[in-house]
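Bit of a strange request maybe. I'm writing a small parser for structure token strings and I need a real example to test against, not something I typed by hand. Could someone generate the tokens for this chain?
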Amino acid sequence: MLREIAAAVVLLCVAFAAGWTVNGWRRDKELVQVRLTYETQRAAAETQARAKEQDWADQAAAIRKNKDAEIATVSRKLNSTLAGLRSRPERPSGAVSQTSRACAGSSGAELARGDGEFLAGYSADAAKLSAALDQCEAQYNQLRK
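Reply from user aminoacidic:
Good idea to test on real output. This should exercise your parser:
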């Protein structure tokens, strides 16, 4: 009888060990499946994020190209304006000239060369800053979408 009990205990231990092993295999298979699913989803999300990042970079490059073209246009206009101002007379020495007192309009026709160059440069700087601001706002609005 002791022999039968020992055999039953050994049989139960073997059955328990076999069940434990089979359950481990099942769990390992589930874990591999979960990891595979996770990696697949992660790779898809990474691909989507990279595509979005590339799209944003392309749009930013296009916006920057527009800004650079606008700044180039402003620089060309400034250079032509400065070339046209070279024929103007310099500001007369003295407190206030008679010409500036008699200025009837605001066309700038009576401006001295130095004053005209300053104002043209100041205007070009403002236009360049405006173009840079437009670029920043366009990129910001692009990313908000």
